[in-house]
Automatic annotation (TrEMBL):
EC number(s) from the headed UniProt entry: 2.1.1.297
Keywords of the record: Methyltransferase, S-adenosyl-L-methionine, Transferase
Entry-linked InterPro entries: DNA_methylase_N6_adenine_CS, HemK-like, N5-glutamine_MTase, PrmC_N, RF_methyltr_PrmC, SAM-dependent_MTases_sf, Small_mtfrase_dom
Name of the featured protein: Release factor glutamine methyltransferase
GO biological process: methylation
Role description: Methylates the class 1 translation termination release factors RF1/PrfA and RF2/PrfB on the glutamine residue of the universally conserved GGQ motif.
Source lineage: Bacteria, Pseudomonadati, Pseudomonadota, Alphaproteobacteria, Rhodobacterales
A Pfam family reported for this protein in Swiss-Prot or TrEMBL: MTS
Catalytic activity: L-glutaminyl-[peptide chain release factor] + S-adenosyl-L-methionine = N(5)-methyl-L-glutaminyl-[peptide chain release factor] + S-adenosyl-L-homocysteine + H(+)
Enzyme class: transferase
Domain Release factor glutamine methyltransferase N-terminal: 6-77
Chain segments annotated as transmembrane: none
Organism: Paracoccus albicereus
Length: 280
């Protein structure tokens, strides 16, 4: 079977399975099946040739996984975010382009050390530290499996960061100039409306708090003042409709608050500044 025929068959299978971008996903998977020997721009010239047996077998296995709605990033084991590729697994949330709004906002602030709560793949923390050589960072998560992925990403990308098992601030000591987080913010009532790629393949604990989607922000707002240096900032990603509720939580905790929108004009990040340090 030629590459073109294999692609056509894969597109038909993925379309029948309800995949949103069957043609794009099929091409990405075929390129990955070839491995590092083939660059993206070289794929077109190989399509008219018969697929090597090993490539065909890998491609068919990946198409089967994608037809079961497993995300492409989990199948290939990586996802591009900011300026690097990050390893992803079923133990981590897939880094998404909209989260880059948070990274961009953080890089517009002055800070030397940063705490990333619920670090997952480490994508936010590692991106920040890579862009600020000499800065320090700690990433926490309640999942040791996720922390292993984050540590591996930091090592591969060449960033020095600390990672620690912690339920929000439970095992965190000291103060930071900046706290960042992309916490589980989907309400349990909204879970059934998610795509199969998210609902069935990504870790539920990274998606929802099992309640109204605001419990993480309550914990972060309540503890931020005790872990920030004077004038420190907190940047939290939010759901598109959560701006008012999350802003109110941080204002009640004594912060100055603004909401940052993404490229589609949706509320995406609540940015809070704490002028006063809390005792403790």
């Amino acid at each position: 079977m030629t590459g073109t025929a294999a692609l056509q068959d894969a597109v038909a299978r993925l379309r029948a399975a309800g995949v949103d971008d069957p043609a794009g996903d099929a091409r990405r998977l075929l390129l990955h099946a070839f491995g590092s020997d083939l660059q993206r721009h070289q794929l077109a010239e190989r399509l008219s040739q018969p697929l090597p047996g090993s490539v065909a077998a890998r491609f068919q296995a990946m198409v089967t996984a994608r037809a079961a709605r497993q995300p492409v990033s989990q199948i290939t084991g990586r996802r591009a975010f900011w300026t690097h590729d990050f390893a992803v697994t079923r133990d981590t949330l897939d880094p998404r382009p909209e989260t880059e709004v948070l990274v961009e906002a953080a890089l517009g602030l002055s800070w030397h050390n940063v705490l990333d709560l619920g670090t997952g793949t480490g994508a936010i923390l590692i991106s920040l530290l890579a862009a600020r050589p000499g800065s320090l960072g700690l990433g926490t998560d309640v999942s040791e499996a996720a922390l292993r992925v984050a540590r591996g990403n930091a090592t591969r990308i060449g960033v020095s960061a600390d990672f620690r098992l912690s339920d929000w601030f439970a095992n965190v000591a000291g103060r930071f100039d900046l706290i960042v987080s992309n916490p589980p913010y989907i309400a349990i009532s909204e879970m059934t409306g998610l795509s199969p790629e998210v609902r069935e393949w990504e870790p539920a604990g990274a998606l929802t708090d099992g309640g109204d989607g605001l419990s993480a922000y309550r914990a972060i707002a309540a503890g931020a003042g005790r872990h920030l240096n004077h004038g420190g900032h907190v940047l939290c990603e939010i759901g598109a409709a959560q701006g008012p509720a999350v802003s109110a939580l941080f204002r009640e905790a004594g912060a100055e608050v603004r909401v940052i929108t993404d490229l589609d004009g949706r509320d995406r990040v609540v940015a809070s500044r704490f002028r006063q340090e809390s005792a403790g």
